[in-house]
Amino acid sequence: MIMKIIHSFPLPHVHMGTTVGNGVLGLSVWGAKDALHITIGNSALWDHRGGMSWRPEQNFRRFRELIESGDRETLFAEFQPGGLRPSLIPAGRLTLRLGMGAILARCILHIDDGLVEAFYCRNGVEYAVQVRLSQTDREVFGVRMPEELEAELIPAYRLSGALAERGFEPPEEDAGGFTQKRPADPPFRINFHREGVLLLFRFGEQAPSISWDELATENRKYWNEFQRNVPQVHLPDPELQKFYDWNLFRFQCMTTPGGVPAGLQGPWIEDDRLPPWSGDYHFNINVQMCYWPAFQTGRWENLLPLFQLLESWEETLRHNARCFVGIDDGFTMPHAVDDRCVSMGDFWAGLIDHGCSLWMAHLMWEYVHYSGDDNFLRRFGFRYMKGVMRVVEALLEECDGIFALPCAVSPEYRGNRLDACGRNPSFQLAAIHRLILDLEEAAELLGAPPSIAWQRIREMLPKAAVMEGELAIWEGLLPEESHRHHSHLAGICPFDLLSVEDSEWKPVLRATENRWIALGMGRWAGWSMPWAAMLHNRFGNAEMAVLSLELWRKAYVNAGGGTLHDTAFPGLSTGLVGDCTVMQMDAGMGVVAAILDLFVYESQGILFALHGIPESWQTFSCRNICCPNGFFFSAERREGITRIEITATRPAILKLCFHGEYIQREMIEKEEFALQQ
Predict the structure, then answer these.
(1) Which of 42, 90, 293, 604 has its CA 20 to 30 A from that of 476?
(2) Where residue 481 falls among pLDDT bands split at 50, 70, 90?
(3) CA 120, CA 126: separation in Å to the nearest integer?
(4) Does an H or E element contain 529, and which?
(5) In 3D, which of 128, 145, 134, 137 has the Cα closest to residue 94?
(6) Using an 8 Å Cβ cutoff, are 333 and 52 in contact?
(7) Is 106 left (phi over 0), alpha (psi -120 to 50) or beta?
(8) Which of 576, 439, 425 is nearest to 489 (CA)?
(9) What gap in Å lies between CA 609 and CA 51, rounded to an integer?
(10) Residues of 205-221 as b/e, b for ≥16 C-beta within 10 angstroms?
(11) Cα gap 132→112, rounded to integer Å
(12) Which candidate, 618, 525, 613, 516, places its Cα nearest to that of 577?
């Protein structure tokens, strides 16, 4: 395990900075020459104005009429109104002037205790600035520095014109901090207090009242406990090892229980502009990928703030379903929303993407599948899953004993063009079938009767759109471009509906794989890479699974380790945003999940052990990777011998595939099972 992450200055952009967070606040330490900056982000700070709430006239029937009539102008006017979007907003920056002749040297993150140290040299002497963020009081952080340094707390209003353009008034600044009013939300304040070498900061009206030693003690206890309770992974590639350990640390920083659910950037909001895409919640993959590490690392409680957010939206989700398909017991949400489930309102194809709700339903069942927490299922999860399925039932049409989804999207395929939808998208079909399987398992767990409708749809709805022996985007359309969303392959991963181990589907999936590879990576985003690694793992391409992760860390990571949407340099992908500074956390979190996936993943109820480990890895080990049904997986390869060990934490039937050998074994609590080759 790597305990120190070291970067050399200059780090001239906020998203090149070394980051720490506590689920609400995010600090980024960066700078160049003689100026050290600490950007202060807060994932709870929204300007809630703008956006769009679902209206009754925005219904599925009306949408189909406009699509089928080719009325693009009305479609855009009714389903894609422009105007102001809700947005997370920047907070501020602390700048330290290091003095004449000083130059920044290096920055060190200690992931075993959350300390960030920035070193600079002046007149041949090295000095340090230390930064700590409280993990128990989420409004507090501290900076310890040489006493002679000057420190300036700069409101974001002064760093960018974006807030003024949105109608914000200048902040009220005083010797103890500043207060920033918001046009439609309560004001926020950052207080600070200096005592010699120590600067203490707090969001809110109260003055900070914690000592540096108290911060240090709290940090060490928190991060030591975290490290003891996550899987220990040792990779033969030191760079992949670094990004596994580091991004697992960042996962905890941005999703810690009791915090704000993680959006595109977590709490690391830049201070000189509004965040790209408002820093919102994108539910067509990005939020889900941000939370993927929770399952195999056993940090299941990190998912609860996200689920509680959806639960707080219950009336809005019901209202949306009422408008969309005219039912009172459904749940649906658009693909891009703020923290109140208000749609961003500028992408009609995302507004009607019910796959977003379906995918979140699967995340809820996976949480129960791993954690065994059926209380959550009883309180909200099962109700949500059933409500999402009720919308599916309203969307489907039956003809000659066959169900069909008459008009739907494959996430972001063809953007917002008039032809960006079709009949029976493979993504939507896979998500529907996945939800039915999850609902049937959940009903059995709760002792609830399954719905006859679920069984009928399972039997009468195709599992995918197949054309010329391949998976299609939707009926009549094979993939025609390299697309960042591998959504027509979602039936393989993450929905685990189709498998190359299944003789019925194997020829189709192999033909689909060939086209996907032939189309290449030329239009992929950073988060496309870990998803591709998981797909290659399931296709049996272990070397390519690992290479996908190596390409990601070489091409989609900036000089400070920030995870980029577009490539950091030209040549691999043509880019989508046209701005290589845009940072999103989804890819980094996906990489953590994809690395664990190399060691073990579940498909069709079977654990595939070491399926993604390439033969070139002569030594490796993992310890206590969490698996569904309460199993823990450990393995190692040393001196040509490979050994796996599985421990049961509750009674369950183990189904295992190891080097092509299938094993089934009924296990009791605390029983261990080992194999060696």
Answers:
(1) 604
(2) very high
(3) 6
(4) helix 528-539
(5) 145
(6) no
(7) beta
(8) 425
(9) 46
(10) eeebebebeebbebbee
(11) 13
(12) 525
Burial class (CB in 10 A: 0-12, 13-18, 19+), 638: exposed
* Nearest alpha carbon to residue 615 among 676, 543, 567: 543
DSSP E strands, 533-671 = 600-603, 606-609, 620-627, 631-638, 641-648, 652-658, 661-667
The letter for the amino acid at 676 is Q
Q: Would strands 672-676 and 641-648 be described as parallel, antiparallel, or unpaired?
A: antiparallel
Looking at 331-455, which runs of residues are DSSP E strands? Answer: 336-337, 397-399, 402-404
- Residues of the chain with pLDDT > 70: what percent? 100
Q: Please choose, from the candidates 168, 176, 180, the residue with its C-alpha nearest in 3D space to the C-alpha of residue 42.
A: 180
Residue 80 has pLDDT above 80, yes or no: no
* Chain position carrying tokens 């809005």: 316
State the Cα–Cα distance between residues 675 and 677, nearest whole angstrom: 7
**pLDDT grade, residue 677 (50/70/90)?**
confident
User: What DSSP assignment string belongs to 287-320?
Assistant: HHHHHTHHHHHT-GGGGHHHHHHHHHTHHHHHHH
Facing residues of 467 across strands?
A: 470
Beta-carbon contacts of residue 316 (< 8 Å; ≥ 6 apart):
53, 333, 340, 341
- SS3 label, residue 410: coil
pLDDT at position 345 is 87
Average pLDDT, the chain: 96
Does residue 405 have a pLDDT over 90? yes
Angstrom distance (rounded) from CA 647 to CA 630: 8
Query: From CA 412, how far away is CA 410, in angstroms rounded?
Result: 6
Bridge partners for 557 per DSSP: 563
Q: How far apart are CA 560 and CA 284, in angstroms?
A: 28
DSSP 16-54: GSEEEE-SSEEEEEEEETTEEEEEEEETT-EE----B--
Residue with tokens 């690992």: 546
Residue 446 pLDDT greater than 90, yes or no: yes
